Amino acid sequence: MNTGRVYWVPMSQLAPVIDLARRYSFEEYYRILQMSETKYEFVDGKLIDIRAMAGGTEGHSEICVNILIQINAALAGKPCRIFNSDLAVRARHMARYRYPDASIACGGSEFGEDDPKHYVLLNPRVIFEVLSPTTESVDRDEKFGDYRAIDSLRQYVLVSQSKPQIESYFRRDDGTWLFQYWTGLEAVARLQAVEVDLPLHDVYAGVKFSSDADAAPDATGKPST
User: Fold this and answer.
1) What is the rounded distance in angstroms from the CA atom of residue 96 to the CA atom of residue 191?
2) What is the CATH number of domain 55-220?
3) Which pTM value belongs to this model?
4) pLDDT in tens, 152-206
5) Domain residues of the chain, as ranges?
6) What is the dihedral of CA 93, 124, 206, 166, to 10 degrees?
7) I need a labelling partner for 150 at 20 to 30 A (CA). Which of 44, 60, 109, 212 fits?
8) What is the Cβ-side half-sphere exposure of residue 147, based on CA atoms within 13 angstroms?
9) What angle do CA 165, 216, 204 make, to 5 degrees?
């Protein structure tokens, strides 16, 4: 005899069916944030499944973890916090919600009145993206354009996973961006926005490169104006 029980699950608890071809309102997107285990970026009403763009490799994961550990320790005693890729960011006046690999906020985290569960950070000071073949062009172009629209953002950091190299765009007081790069495991990147030094040997601890990348000479890129 079948003694199994039947349980009724309210429709509100079921994961929504996503149609990437249609446009969604923010209210619909916010419900998806609460109900779906999958993270979607929200760009002018369209949903972007970031699983299709994510680095997803062992090296990408190791680099992200190393960045979180090193910067979390370096921020001790400072009024700043680092967040992982679970927290989205956006400019206050734009309907474009992005998930960076890591972000730093200082002086308290700010969220919109329409975001009571705090899914989307409004005031990142530093944003990190770890580059991969599937995301690099978007990170350098489209995402950087969205990030530049965030008034609080002072530094955008691009981290290579194919070789020990970090690139930085720092927003100066006059609104122009200063470009710098650091190459080689002996180099030390400077996060001016939070007054933190980031040794590349810590960022890439445990990461395996090809022989060509390992042999790359140490260098600090000159600022570009």
Assistant:
1) 25
2) 3.90.1570.10
3) 0.84
4) 999 999 999 999 999 999 999 999 999 999 999 999 999 999 999 999 999 999 9
5) 11-51, 55-220
6) 80
7) 60
8) 30
9) 45
